[in-house]
Model the fold of this input.
Amino acid sequence: MNKADIGLVGLAVMGENLVINMESKGFSVCVYNRTVEKVTAFLNGRAKGKSICGAKALEELVSCLKSPRKVMLMVKAGKPVDDYINELIPLLSPGDIIIDGGNTHYPDTIRRTKYVESKGLLYVGTGVSGGEEGALLGPSIMPGGSKDAWVHVKPIFQSIAAKVEGIFDGAASKRMPCCEWIGNDGAGHFVKMVHNGIEYGDMQLICEAYFIMKEYLGLCADEMHEVFKEWNEEVLDSYLIEITRDILAYKDEDGSPVIEKILDTAGQKGTGKWTSVASLDEGVPLTLISEAVYARCLSALKDERVRASDILTGPNPAGRFTGDKKAFIGDIRQALFASKIISYAQGFALLRAASETYNWGLSFGDIAMLWRGGCIIRSTFLSNIKEAFDKNPSLDNLLLDPYFSGAVADAQDGWRRVCSAALMNGLAIPAFASALTYYDGYRTARLPANLLQAQRDYFGAHTYERIDKPRGEMFHTNWTGRGGTTSATTYNV
Done:
C-alpha cells in the first residue's frame, strides 16, 4: 500500500467511524491505538479490504504518511492529548500537522497551538459533532489553530463533513460542507463548546415541554409522540425534536413506553459547564444554558429529591388542567420556540464576545451553517440565523433582528401563559423561566441596578455613575456621614 493521506490515533467509536468515513471518500488512512489488539481487530473487521493500514507504534504510523504528515488524535481530552503531542513532536518534520479532534477545553488548544508551532509544526484543534452516526455519515467539523494547516486538511475535512443546501440572498444553492475554517488557536474548540452548551439548552427546553404535557396536561407517551411529530414538520424541525418523537414512541418488551422506565438522573461530560464558566469570564449573561447545566446537577440528587418529596409541600399539577388542551399545547410550542431563540441569542452573544477577546474574527453566519447538518443541534432554524448575520454582520443580539424580534413578539403571550401555569402548579421549568426573565430584562431600558450600585457604594465606596452626567464620570456618596470622601480605586461595570 502507498503512503497514507492521514493517520488517526484512537480507535474508539468516533475514531473508527471517522476512519471509515475518510476511506469511503477516497482517502487512505493509517491507524494506531495504544492497545494494539484494537488495531488488529479493526483491520480484520470493519476495515478489511479497504485502503486502511495499521501501525503497532507511533514511529511506524508516522513513517506510513505522506508529507506533510497529518496525525489526528481521537483520544480522551486532557493529559492523553499532551502525552501524544510530546511523543509525536520528535517523530515529525517541520510543517507536519497534529490534529486534536476530541472535546478539548479551548484554553488547552490555545496553549498547545503555541507550543506545537514553537517546535516548527502546525496544530489544529477541531470540534467534531454528530456522535458516532455523524462521524460515519458526515459530522459538523469546526477546525481552528494554525491557519497554514487548513490548506492541507481542508480536502479531507470538507469531504467527510455533512452537506446542506447553501443559503445566498435568501435562496438555496449547491450543497455546502458543514466545515469551514473557524479561526486561530482555540477558536474551533470554543465554537464546539458553545455548540454543546446550546445543545444542553435545547435538550432541557424539550424536557420541560415534555414535563408540562405529561404532569399538567396528563398526556401519555403516544399522545406526546404525535405532538412532537407535528412540531418536527414546522418551525421547530430539528434533530432533537425528531429523536424525541421517536423516543416517545419506543416500546419495551411488555409494550409499555421505555421512557417511563428510565431513571430521572442526567449525566454530563463538562462542556456545558465550560460554556457557563466562559460566559462569566466574558461577562455575557448565559442564563438559559447555565440553568440547563444546573438542572442536570439537580437531577443527579435523586435520593435527596425523593426524601424531599415527602417533606416539602407544593401544588400537585396532576389533574388540575381543565382548559383546552390543544390550545395549551400550542402555547407550549410557542414557549419552546421563543426560549430556543433566547438560547441561541445568548450563545451567539458569547461567541461575539470571545471573538473580540481572542481576536478570532468569527463569522457568525458561517458558524450557523456549520451547524445546519451533521451536528446534534442541527435544525432548519439555523438558516434564519445565517440570514440575520448576512444582513447585519455586526448584529449585537439575535433578538434585535426583525425576524427574531417578530417571532418572540408573536410567541410571548403563549410563553407567558405556560410559565405562569407551570409555576402556579409547582412544575420546575428553569430553562423556560430563565429565558423569559432574560427577555424581559433585555427589553427593559432601566433595571434596578441603580439600587445595587448604591448598595455597593454604601458598604464599599465602589462609586457609581449618574444619569444626569456623562458616562464614565464616577461619584461617591458619604451615605452615613462617617465615610469621608475616599472611594475605591477600581470599578467594574
